[in-house]
Automatic annotation (TrEMBL):
Its EC number is 5.6.2.4. It catalyses: ATP + H2O = ADP + phosphate + H(+); Couples ATP hydrolysis with the unwinding of duplex DNA by translocating in the 3'-5' direction. One of its GO terms (molecular function) is ATP hydrolysis activity. HAMAP family: PriA. Keywords: ATP-binding, DNA replication, DNA-binding, Helicase, Hydrolase, Isomerase, Metal-binding, Nucleotide-binding, Primosome, Zinc. It comes from Hymenobacter psychrotolerans DSM 18569. This is Replication restart protein PriA. The keyword Heme does not apply. Initiates the restart of stalled replication forks, which reloads the replicative helicase on sites other than the origin of replication. Recognizes and binds to abandoned replication forks and remodels them to uncover a helicase loading site. Promotes assembly of the primosome at these replication forks.
Amino acid sequence: MSLTFDFVQSQPEPAADRVTLFADVILPLPLPKLYTYRVPFELNDQVVIGGRVIVQFGAKRTLSCIVAAVHETPPKDYQAKYILEFIDETPVVTQPQLKLFRWMADYYLCTLGEVINAALPAALKLNSESRIQLHPVWMNTDEADRYPLSEQEQKVVAALLDGEEGKSMTFTEVGDVLGVASFHKVIKSLMNKDVIFLFEHLADKYSPKVVKKVRLAHHFVAEAALEGLFAQLASKAKQLDVLMRYLQKVPVYQNEHANHNGIEKAYLTSAPHLSPSAVNTLIKNGVLEQFDQIVSRFPLDDATEANMHFQLSEAQQVAHDDILDQFQTKDIVLLHGVTGAGKTEIYIELIRQALDGGGQVLYLLPEIALTAQIVTRLMRVFGSRLGVYHSKFSDNERVEVWNGVLSGRFQVVVGVRSAVFLPFDNLALTIVDEEHESSYKQYDPAPRYNAREVALMMANFQGSKTLLGSATPSVETYYQARAGRYGLVTLTKRYGEAGLPEIELVDTRKARESKTLLNHFTPELMTEMESKLAQKEQVILFQNRRGYAPFINCLDCGWIPKCTNCAVSLSYHKQAHELRCHYCGHHDRMPVQCPACGSRNVKTVGFGTEKIEDDLKVMLPQANVQRMDLDTTRAKNAYQQIISDFEQQTTNVLVGTQMVTKGLDFANVSLVGIINADSIIHYPDFRAHERAFQMFVQVSGRAGRKGKKGKVIIQTADPQQVIFDKVMRNDYLEFYEYEITQRREHGYPPFMRIIRLTVKHMDQVLAERAAILLTGELVERLGREAVLGPEAPYIFRIRNFYLQEITIKLSREHTVLKAAKADILDAINAIRDQKEYKQARFVADVDPM
């Protein structure tokens, strides 16, 4: 599969020579090659690399795509169709982005179309099912002030007005109304005139954020007219109060131009001492004018430039200076600082210096929960120069940030993994905080990328510096630092007076034998919780499983409900009172009796975060308990609300999954409880101990901030596990030395590269056969020692597909890796071309986590 292309735009010859140009475009489809279209001659001057164009693909389908190259060579194997329309006059995808996207497609064994599909917000991708709707601004504009419309434009508007309010039409329906095949110019013109707007799906319907505003009618702005108005309203106290409040906010006496922008109507109608009806009366009588204004959805848009400064501690300053020194000779530096060492303050100072030098900064975080807390801190420093980018934002908010980076409005962006796709072209610094986190890895769909690795490559392409930060670096990253490929800076002390927390291991097996275990809580943990709550301090409890119970079963016949689509048991969720599959989302009602034997003796087995929350509300009635997991954070602002409640101490106990382990900073937390440590350690994966160590140390780091000595209680049935000793001593170096020895001995990263191939088929026998044949093809190309498997994974069926996995171990040498990937694609295609396996799916996961 070749995805290479030329990024240098050909220079068209003079129009008199009638040069025919062709454009290679990236379609948002999993196609192995770029597709070539002909540029209409009259649009030769408009074609721009990185801009979007609309093309017809197939018989009826129209799509927007990205221009990757412009040249004069027609395709050899097919007749090039004409580009239908140009959407952009300037690029929405930059040249550095195109280079990065090409690298991602090659490295992660996917197509460039899949990368583009993942990279672009949906509002920048149009197709034949895209819809149009009348713009609220146009609807609320006086007819005399509207742009004049052509006959075709009037037909489209009439069709949208003919029906219920909010009617929408697809592109295909617009073509039917106009009776022409080429209608994209009409749509574009209506968009430019703010008559219509586009949206992709009804579920994601876009409407611009519009606020109602009022201003003083222009003929009252003059001083004499205003004095006459006061006299006119002298007997109308409520209306006079409204006018006075307006003038307090808008000083028209000092600056009559200030009146043009007016103020939000809500500023007047929501004031407790003013009458909303008086406001409406003034509007009705022509004293105030009401108008609509589109405002940014981005919550930081109106932030002021606070430029807050703070003093780094002596240790922070030393680390900061060391980072800058190492950036002189190294492009990548690892900041290894214990939890609570104050890494964020160092980041902020480095960001400030990068901006002073005129560059852009990308600050990556592994979880949306972290952005909610850190953004507040960064706003105080960088104000409206700061953009935020993550999946909980609406698609239209993401487009605003995308365009803000393109225009230079946002010089700093804080985001989760998808922020690596943003159109940076002057990147000076990339910060990857909590670089060890598996949340940086995208699992489905393709590209299955690791944002940390993509960020490193993006920085390499743009000649910028990258700072990786973690209290528990990944083994691979620390290996590169110890080998001298990365710089290494260490922070060993917590910020301020805070010391590392005291860690206590509690044996759940002994508690169970002595019958002192109460609802999965040992007496030690219960006593500490009660003590901390009595002292008005806060508690975090970590359980790495959501839901109420992992499964239910019949105590008489042993029946356990299974998912109909996956080879897993269904988990019980009490709040929804349903059984739910955590892999495909399938759900059933909680049965009253066993469907197998009819017994009513059906009980829950095990416990998740929901059950812990439920139990604590009974056991600690004085506490306000809240839960943070996937189920409670689905809503857009749920993260922020849960964190805000905990920060303001309206919540005493926070129960959560991995979300609570990742870099959150709460000043009043003095106790952290790890409910079931064993489930994290005993997992069939070569990274299991690494993940366990990182998770235990990270969640322990939430205890004891701002001068308080924290405590951590780890509940385990196997306190003799070697890993606990390293966690209790916070000894990362000893853990690393043990782990790197194991990796070297057994041939795992960082010494080898791993690619995991998954074969999927709805027929179990065909899945196994296809996997066996693929293994044979791979062995023939790569050798027996490089190919392990095939074998069925622990969960061998997901969403009705049976799975078989093949693991490939390869040398880290670049040329070997590149050749091996070409061999892997050839082997997959050899099986895919066989008629019997046309329905099989082949998934390549490079560097699986």
